[in-house]
Amino acid sequence: MKETVRPLLVFAVAALYVVMTSFVPHSTAAADAILGMLLLAGLAVIGIPHGALDVWTYQHRTKNGFSSLGYIVGYLIAIGLVFAFWMVFPVAGLTLFLVLSAWHFGQADFVLWGLHKGGWAWGTLALSLILVWHMEEALEIVSHMGVEPGTRNLISSFIPALQWTAITGWFIAAARAIYLRKAPWLWTLGMLAFTPWIPLLLAFGMYFVGQHSFAGWSHLQHEMNLRSMELWRKAFPFTVGAWLLIAGGIWFLTSGKSSDLHATSGAFFMLLGSISIPHIFESHWLLRNDAGR
Question: Is residue 80 domain-resident?
């Protein structure tokens, strides 16, 4: 999908969701279900697969590196080490995940938009615009990752300041996008402006699937010179492996416990984060090459 069209469609979906849930009586459950199914489909079709191609991007950019098997074994060891670190040091693990995710999201977006400075600041702002309006729900989720009440209460005390900082950042980013004539960036900012009225998981999914995953897919197509069908074929076994790791991990973390949506979400994000951190570094090297497009 062309970059001039996709962010407009994502913006339109967010706008339609907010209009429906705000003005159409008793529509919230249906809107949640429809948007949730769309995002789950997007996660399966492009969200997980765009990160499941790391062994291929490594082989593509490295002539005398590890074999595919050696790389996969090392990758799995890295996932295990990140997961173990997160289990032992939950606050540090969560902080590392958020900081690296902001770097990763910002780099992917800015390379896609042809921008060269400020990617980390943009990624931090994008994550903040999603999180700061849903901090109570976010803190409930991270409580299932082992983050202690004292830390959560400290974060809660900064919510108003964080919200005003995010609003200020939104206007600064919008002014820069207008000055640089970057319409896709403006449509993405428009979508993020609706996130206060969209539940946290759906709001994050809209950005992760609707913006970041498509950006990653575009970089893969350009750098590896492959069509989507060829990328899906190469990603398939690793996509299945990623889902098995996530499903097995959720079972391990929630088995024998009283689990609700927040507990399952906490387990899911711990596992997604553990898988994502090795991917973030592999993607960084790919994006360095793709930045010269």
Answer: yes
Strands (E), the chain: none
Please, what sign has the CA dihedral across residues 217, 220, 225, 229?
Answer: negative
Look up the domain containing 162 and give its range: 6-28+41-290
Would 189 be classed as within a structural domain?
yes
Q: Are 284 and 107 in contact (CB under 8 A)?
A: yes
- pLDDT number for residue 2: 62
Residue 176 CA: distances (Å) to CA of 149, 170, 181, 186: 39, 10, 8, 9
Using CA atoms, how far residue 126 sits from 54, 70, 98, 140, 190, in Å, is 24, 35, 11, 21, 11
The band of 293, judged by pLDDT with boundaries at 50, 70 and 90, is very low
Question: What's the token pair of residue 115?
Answer: 């921008």
- Rounded distance between C-alpha atoms, residue 51 and residue 49, angstroms: 5
Total number of domains constituting the chain = 1
Residue type at 161 in one-letter notation: A
- Distance CA(40)–CA(175), nearest Å, equals 33
Q: Is residue 277 part of a domain?
A: yes
Residue 167 in contact with residue 290, Cβ under 8 Å?
Answer: no
The DSSP annotation for 106-153 comes to: HHHHHHHHT--S-HHHHHHHHHHHHHGGGHHHHHHHHHTTT--HHHHH
Residue-wise pLDDT tens digits, 64-76: 667 888 888 999 9
Nearest to 268 by CA among 244, 241, 242, 250: 250
Q: Which of 66-75, 80-89, 145-154, 189-198 has the highest mean pLDDT?
A: 189-198
pLDDT (0 to 100) of residue 62: 76
Which residues, in sequence order, are CB contacts of 254 under 8 Å at separation 6+?
263, 264, 267
pLDDT at residue 290, as a whole number? 52
Residue 1 lies inside a defined structural domain of this protein: no
pTM, two decimal places = 0.89
